[in-house]
Structure formats: structure tokens, C-alpha cells
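Reviewer 2 asked us to include a model.

Predict the structure of this chain.
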Amino acid sequence: MTVFKTYFKILKRYKGTILLYTAILLFFGIWNMRSNEESMSFSPQKPDICIVNNDEEKGMTEHLISYLQDNCTVVSLSDEQQIDDAIFYRDVHYIIYIPENYHQDVLAGKNPVLDIKSTGDYAASLTERILERYLQIQNVTVQNLTTENEIIESMDQVLETETTIEIVENQADTSQAAYYFNFASYSIMACIVFIVCLIMTSFKNKNTQKRTIITPLSYQSYNCQLLLANGLYALALWVFYVIVSVILTGNEMMSVKGLLYCCNLLLFSLCSLTISLMLSTLINDKNVVSGIANVIALGSAFLSGVFVPASLLPDLVLKIAHLLPSYWFVNTNEVLKDASVLNSVTLQPVFVNMAVLVGFMVIFIMINNAVTKKRQITG
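Predicted model (C-alpha cells):
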């Protein structure tokens, strides 16, 4: 097992590179997962408004102003010029003009009109809904009660009834796992392609090859040990990233979806390994390996929706991405993330994508064998 031991001795030299790509994965993966958590949170926002009261602040008028102050942020403006400037610069979004004798007209059932100025944006529409709710309750209450105190007390009881907004997350949702594994595709491809190519080119050194020839080690045993070492390295890297995913996402991985994420990553790791073996057959210069590894890993990540969501990429880019294993890997993660129920229908695209990854592996192995055979023939 001399070749096998030598492989891992060389591998130790590049542990810094492996740790670097792992650190990149952890940094961007955790950052993206936290961003996703923040996007799922909800907090009500109070729109900025201005109230111009031309009535006495008492009774129904005082009650309206108090209601608006509780549900909006009221900004004080002294004159019309300031009001127009505030509307123009979006310092306030809604101006409410309370007319003279408002509280008396309300009690008399005259349904007085409130003049408004609006920016017409979301905050203005929200204020309009808040005001409409109050006026509708007010109109109904005035028709059924007579005294001002009774009207105000009845309205308070209705207005205090609030709607609780709750964002319900599907217990089977594994969106955090999807973000993690998407980013893991970049790190695992970079680690495997870069390291495997460097180690394999080391074995191609002329002095190393001469020493191998004079040893009693058969060519078949030599290749088997190299293949075993490469496979164990890829498998160890996969196990490590799976363990990290369990630490970061917790219970999300303890499900059928979590198992499918792991299987998908295993296939992608093996696919990256076949790419590495093919490139190591084509490349003999260590100086070229670094550039090619970065181009393949970064290019695949950008084109396949790892760094930029696929929904934001142009159609032409996505068509090109179909030629890359990373696209099918990421697509599987997105399908699993969006699937609320796992059945034969929802899992069909998952199995198709995995089959495509296996197809890529077969193609890369065939190319590698063809190049190796040609070089043996030509000497």
C-alpha cells in the first residue's frame, strides 16, 4: 500500500487549502441561512402621516386623532409649504385634514368628509386602510347609539379587536439545508478538483514514474491504490460536510428530505471526482491546475444558481448551465426545498436530476479512458 500511503502524505500538504474552502462554505452558508431567517420574519410598520385638525380636539375628533396616533407615526408640520415638501420627499405619506365641527357633524349623522393628500405608495395605501376601518366602524356605531360617550366606548371595544398575523412554517421545510448544500457544491468541487489534480500530477513526475517502474508493484495494483485513495478522500470530504450540515441545520437533516440532500451531495462529490480524474489525465502542469480548478468551481457556481438564484439568471445562462453537473445538483436542492409532500410525482425530477449526474460520471470516465488509451498507443 505504498502508493496509498504516499497519496495521503501529499494530501497533508494541502490541508490548508481544504480548510480555506471549508471556511468559505461556512461563512457564506451561515450568512445566507441567516438572511433567509430574517426574510421570514414579520414586524408591522407604522406609516408616517400628518394630521391637520381644524376642529376642537375633543369628543369624536379627539378619539380619531388618538386612534391615528396609536396606529401611525404622526409628524408635526407647521404650514402647507412644509406639508407639500414632506409629501414630495416622502417624509410623510398621508395628510389628513379634519374639517371644522367634525365631532358635531359625526354625532348628527352627516358623515363629514376628510380631505387627504397622499403619496400613493404602499405606506399611503396602508394608512388609507387604517382610516377606512375607523370610519366604517364609526358610521355603524353612530347609527345604533346616541350619546358621544357610548359611541366612543363601543368603538373602542371593536377597535381593540386585533388580527394576529402568524407566519406558519411547514415542519417539513428544509430551506436552510437547501442554501447550505447549494453553497457546499462550490466548496466540494473546488476541494476535490484542485487537490486531486495536484496530487495526480505529482505522481506523474518523471522521477516518480521511473521509481514505480523498477518496483515489483504491478500497474494494476498501482492504479487501484490511486483510485481507492481518491475515492476515500472524496468520501471523507462528503462525510465532513454532512456532519457540518447536521450541526448547522439540526433537525432539518433528520428526515427523508435530509437523506435525499445527502445522497445528492454524494453523487455530486463522485461526479466532481470523475471530473478531477479526467482533468488530471489531460493536465501535467501543476501551475495550470490552480487556474483551471478555480474556473471550473467558480464558473459552475455562478452559472448554476449557487451564488445568484437561478430565477434571476438570464435564459441563455441557464441553457448553458444545463451542460454543468452543478446545475442539476442545485436544481435537486431547490425541488426538495419547495416540495411540501414527498411522493412519486414530486420526487420524479429529483431522480431525473440524480440520473443526469450519474450520466455525467459515465461520460467523464469514458473520456478519461479514451485519452489514457490513446496515450498508451501513441506512447
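Confidence is low (pLDDT under 50) at residues 38-42, 167-173. The CA atoms of residues 26 and 41 lie 23 Å apart. We have added this to the supplementary material.
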